[in-house]
Amino acid sequence: MARRALGERHVGHAGTLDPAASGVLPLCVGRATRLVEYILRQPKTYHARLRLGEVSDTGDLEGEVRRTESAAHLTEADVAAALEQFVGIVQQVPPMHSAVRHQGRHLYELARQGLTVERKSRPAEIRRITLRSFSPGEVAEAEVEVVCGRGTYLRVLATDLGQRLGVGGVLAWLERTEYGPFKLTEAVRLDDLLASPDPRSYLLPPELAVEMVPRIDLLPAGALAVQRGQSVWIQRAPDLGVEVPGQSLEVRAHGPDGRLVALGEVTGLRFRPTKVLLPISG
User: Fold this and answer.
1) Which of 45, 138, 244, 276 has the CB geometry, 3.0–4.6 Å to 178, for a possible disulfide?
2) Residue ranges of the domains in the chain?
3) Helices 76-84 and 154-165 meet at what angle, rounded to 10?
4) Catalytic residue check, 18
5) What is the per-residue pLDDT across 140-185, written as a single tens digit (0 to 9) for each?
6) 213-276 homologous superfamily
7) Fold classification of 44-179 (topology level)
8) Residue 72 backbone dihedrals phi, psi, to 5 degrees
């Protein structure tokens, strides 16, 4: 849909969302599709509602939900203390209803056929969990804000939390509110994009996707050489405090007009482009 609206053949997304979820989904357009890997490195923030006292075969409300142990005895302090134990590097088993591949096929494809395969646990980084509200009851509800890294499943967090508390848990609702520098409050709804007389006016500068990468600035002659794919000498190495002699450093290179020209590696004072994003026009 974005391809048609933008009149652009190359459009890629950075990180899927479950069908029942909503929120920020960065799209990379044209040559910026080469920046997807940099967005995927950045932290994501989710707002989620977890239900305690229920379980599901999918880990959320899309599957068959059944009641388990009563959660009426749980307090806000109980839930907050249990959530704190998931902060850091945790091991998660990818759910069957996920995009992880098994022998060339997505797990969700196998799950839709009623198949279950063995999955190995994977490390996931959860940087922060904040318990925003708690509603006690036979089926209790906890609203949380989670800041995490790539490959973290909130459905698995809900399931694991329920197991930790001994009552079972499912993910009831999920919204991605931030993805690196991209915020939901600044996002454009798909309907608005499709209805806009000038959808390309919503495009953001590509350097936003790589703002966490150290920057170097090129002189006019150097920028032209880099646009041709050539390595160049730079005047000054990026100031990162500590330098390791002979070690390459990933950087983004900007031209005299401030536009992002390329990404590449600096060794000493030599810059070698690996991804040229601003080719010579014409």
Assistant:
1) 45
2) 44-179, 213-276
3) 120
4) yes
5) 999 999 999 988 999 999 999 999 999 999 999 999 999 999 999 9
6) PUA domain (2.30.130.10)
7) Pseudouridine synthase (3.30.2350)
8) -60, -25
